[in-house]
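User: Quick sanity check before I run a bigger batch. Here is a single chain. Can you write out its predicted 3D structure?
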Amino acid sequence: MLDAERASPTDIDLHWRGGGSGSSGHVLEFATDASGPYTVLRYLPAGVTSYRHPDLMPRTTFHYRLRAVLGPASTSVSVTLPAGELTAADEESGHDWLPARTDPVRTVPGTPLRRTGAGAPTGFTAVVKHANGILFTWTDHASDEEGFLLEARVRKDSGYAPVAVLDPDVNSTGLITLPTEKRGSYRVRAFTHGAPSNVVRLTTGEFAGQ
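Assistant: Done. Predicted structure follows.
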């Protein structure tokens, strides 16, 4: 059940109850027209049950809905990056490894996520490219995924959270981390979406001072 309230004239707070059975998190979507189209606002991990949509257009009605994220994750890998920052040599070597790609050799389709709940990516590996760069590759076993989530846990006291949303059939992507994120655990999840929640609607007010 999704609820919403105005935290200020142009900030909207959204709240919901925990995910259903098998949920790996949620995707929050919004539209400015009742008939859509809806735009993804944020993919959120399972433990998160609230979100603030800030600095919105005044005098505008926003429509929100929530969908569960369903699908299995790969095994995780731990990564330790070199000390220091990106060097001139790193810059000169280029970042052709960074864009998301599909390698047919690492695509083994045939497992429908929606029907079986199986089809987790396998062979998930991480290669350190430089002080703040990691290349991830995996084998895709799903036949009906709506995409992949690259998830990270960069603090021991935190859970995994999405750091990149990738298209269907992708099985390679690079990641540039923050300079402070020298150690972390990573995994990739093939996912589909659950049914939409109820839709909540709120109209923003005026900017302060107007």
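The first helix runs from residue 88 to 93.

User: Great, the batch can go ahead then.
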